Amino acid sequence: MLGCNIGSLFKVTVGGGSYQETLVTHLQGVPPGYLITEEEIYRDLLLRKPGQGELTSPRREPDVPVIVTGQNCDDTMAGFHNAHYSNGSPFTILIPNLDRHFEHVEAYRVTNRTPRPGHASYASYMKYGQWDDSIGAGFFSGRYTATIVAAGAVAKRILQDHGIEVTGYVKEAAGVRLADMPIEKIRPKIAAYKEMRWKNDPIYNWVFTSGRFTSDMRMLQKMAVLAELEKEVPDMYKKMIHWDEEAIRKEYGIHPKLNCPDLATADAMYDRIIEITKQGDSSGGLVEVVATGVPAGMGEPVFNKLEAELGRMLGIGAVKAVESGAGMAVKDMTGSQDNDQISVKNGKVVFDSNSAGGITGGLATGQDIVVRLAVKPTPTIAKPQHTIDKVSLENKDLAAVTRRDPTIVPRVWPVAEAFTAMILLDHYMQHVAFQSLAKK
């Protein structure tokens, strides 16, 4: 299978499938000297995993990662303290699939001849024939996005050390849109949401807070913990679904299941999503990502323009459009409205606006980089739909019988945040290398 890698200096290759043994993220270009732990990566993974309430699929995947290459196994010599730090070699992360039981596999088997409209199941069958990994949609399932989140967790960690911060959130859901807010007000809310999620995640507490899973353990020891975890998962997810939502609202001032930085807007989004779901249907929305601290001049022209690279987020399942800055709205603007006029204040270059989304000519301007992703409604719905038998080519009717998300938007934002970080780190590494070679 081609098309599963990206990057020039920070290279990401992903593999696995929805019901295969594991998902895998393979990274090249991770600098040496970073202490990156499974706990740190899991804090991002738990933001997109399923089974966390009525806005997500009931599939109960823990998504606990296991780092298997790219780190020193111990201190390399007396007096050195470099155990478990990255060593510059390829960095590999496994994300085992634990919730893949026979009844779930059988639910797909009995419906796999009738592809779901709006899903890749027909096209993938035409490409791979009888060998198509159609159990849970294989690599065309949103499940694979866990690999992107894992890679992005590493990328974000490195970027933060260089003053670049990436923040994603739900901008619009089911037709309810968040009013524009400055990133300075958004970030504390997103940080509170992330903290709330890991502090209230029973799997995080069982695996990491308890000390059952540590960097000093060997891979087989970690796998033994996951085997034990698999038995505990059903009860843990029951606790997760029954959070004390009022206490969370009071303490954090956020919606516990929807990462929108304004609570009133998040409530309106939630109510509309549930209303549509009760009708047997699904809904879409917009995810916005903002990156700050990106140096002016970073990027490349023509085919590798920075915004073109960010447009690669069309590779995220269910994303149908990516826009930067004013995006599609530029078609209704005049030049004077769209242009970001420039001046100097106190010796610094400032812009009056940011219609360009922080990128012109494919190069960063030094402003905030702003991108938005349009996320389509979940293809799997409870309403009858017309389809075919893809083997016998007969007309059929289809009603959803598999596990599904009423909306994908609340799970796409961490993927977009991670993907943006991957792209920015790759270009930042190129930028630093290029600038270091330039004659002064």
Characterize the largest beta sheet: strand count, sense, and whether it forms a barrel.
Answer: 5 strands, antiparallel
In DSSP terms, counting alpha (H) and pi (I) runs of 4 or more, how many helices?
12
Helix percent band: 25-40%
- The H/E string reads EEEHEEHHHEEHHHHHEHEHEEEEEEEH
Counted up, domains total 1
CATH superfamily, called what?
Answer: Chorismate synthase AroC
SS-based class: alpha+beta
CATH class annotation: Alpha Beta
- The total beta strand count reads 16
Known CATH architecture: 4-Layer Sandwich
What is the CA–CA distance across the termini? 45 Å
Principal-axis shape: globular
Strand coverage percent: 15-25%
Rg value: 22 Å
**Which whole number gives the mean pLDDT?**
90
Output the CATH topology: Chorismate synthase, AroC fold
Give the low-pLDDT segments.
none
Output the strand order for the largest sheet: 1-2-3-5-4
Short key terms for the protein model shown above:
440 residues; alpha+beta; Chorismate synthase, AroC fold; five-stranded antiparallel beta sheet; 12 helices; 16 strands; 18% strand; globular
Give the structure's gist in a few sentences.
This protein has 440 residues and is of the alpha+beta class. The protein has one domain: Chorismate synthase, AroC fold, CATH 3.60.150.
Q: Can you characterise this structure?
A:
With 440 residues, the protein is of the alpha+beta class. The chain has a single domain (5-437), classed as Chorismate synthase, AroC fold (4-Layer Sandwich). The protein is 34% helix and 18% strand. The chain is built from twelve helices and 16 strands. The protein has helices spanning 38-45, 102-109, 121-128, 145-160, 183-199, 202-209, 219-241, 245-252, 263-278, 306-310, 335-338, 409-437, and strands spanning 5-6, 11-16, 22-28, 66-69, 91-96, 165-173, 176-177, 285-292, 319-324, 342-345, 348-351, 359-360, 363-364, 369-375, 385-389, 394-398. A five-stranded antiparallel sheet has the order 1-2-3-5-4, sandwiched between helices. α1 (38-45) crosses α4 (145-160), α4 (145-160) crosses α12 (409-437) and α6 (202-209) packs antiparallel against α7 (219-241). The longest helix is centred in the C-terminal third of the chain and has 29 residues, at 409-437. The mean pLDDT is 90.
